[in-house]
Design brief:
Elements (H helix, E strand, L loop, with lengths): L9 H28 L4 H9 L18 H14 L1 H20 L2 H13 L4 E4 L15 E5 L2 E12 L6 E7 L8 E7 L5 E3 L13 E12 L3 E2 L5 H37 L1 E2 L2 E2 L4 H29 L5 H26 L10 H11 L6 H13 L3
Parallel strand pairs: 1-4
Antiparallel strand pairs: 2-3, 3-7, 4-5, 5-8, 6-7, 9-10
Helix pairs in contact: 1-3, 3-4, 3-6, 3-7, 4-6, 6-7, 6-8, 6-9, 7-8, 8-9, 8-10
Amino acid sequence: MTVERALHTPEAEQLLELTREIVDKELTPRAAEDEESSTFPRDVFRVLGTAGLLGLPYPGQYGGGGQPYEVYLQVVEELARGWLTVGLGVSVHSLSVYPVAEFGTEEQKTALLPDMLGGDLLGAYCLSESTSGSDAAALATRAVHKDGGYLVNGSKAWITHGGRADYYALFARTGERGGRGISCFHVPAKTPGLSSATPERKMGMCSSPTAGMLFNDVRLGTDSLVGEENRGFGIALSALDSGRLGIAACGVGLAQAALDAAVSYSRERKQFGRAIGDFQGVGFLLADMATQIAASRELYLAAARLHDAGRPFGTQAAMAKLMATDTAMKVTTDAVQIFGGYGYTQDFPVERYMREAKVLQIVEGTNQVQRMVIGRHLTQDD
């Protein structure tokens, strides 16, 4: 079903219409088959770049769309409705663009952003490590000064697009322990010494490659440094605030896809001479699903409006990520229940939606971390 949206400009309406067209023609028809074969849809990201959908929240002077976050996130939601691998991929790519777009020099922006925003270069975000996931400030990958540049050694874990990206936004230690000794770097994928580990075998989102990245004597010039040395952790955290809104939008999109499938099935499937949607037990489930999705959508949009107004939005982003991804897990589970035995088979998409929903409660800060963020905000002194 088409979601009713309050879009404030004709351009925004056209962008959403274009997105739906791409979803219906390019994504939905191939999602199940590509997920089964673990085929990475690199061509789709080129299509999105050509259509101007890959750099929506970034400035037009560098090839971006110059759109408010409120519009960008609704595009991500629509993409995730068609295929979570693509919606989440766009969100992660946008996350990888953020350091250069917001903290890079004018030379870096001019040289890098057009291809990053146009789809020629697909990015990945290298923060997590095997021993420092939620505790990101404890990362151990180190970049030391050598020969007028940096020498990087270490490894990263759980990297979306790992081994398939064209560049990596890397966070490595250049100074003291903790967050104050971390710097951000832009690392092209073909840099000598950079390689990927064997991709993870996952329960869902099999078309989206997730792999560790290995840095073995990777030499970087000083022009690879993004922002100030030892100030990279602030870049990472501010990027994640925006990225969590992307994950929230993905959660809403996936939940909407599950609801759409469940509503359609409840109208067609008959038992005891009636469509199962006419039974109160099913109707109440659908009503709760629709309400939770609508509430989650409004929460991420409210946080997006704060972002667009230049006001603090980190706590609201945590709330949106928490609620939207918990909603996605609940709604996809209920969708499987509505389908009954058929919901447990691969003949219908809801079993895939349920498997995919789980990762959204984990990536870019587990939902337990989001609760910590929200709780600290509530209990700290004004």
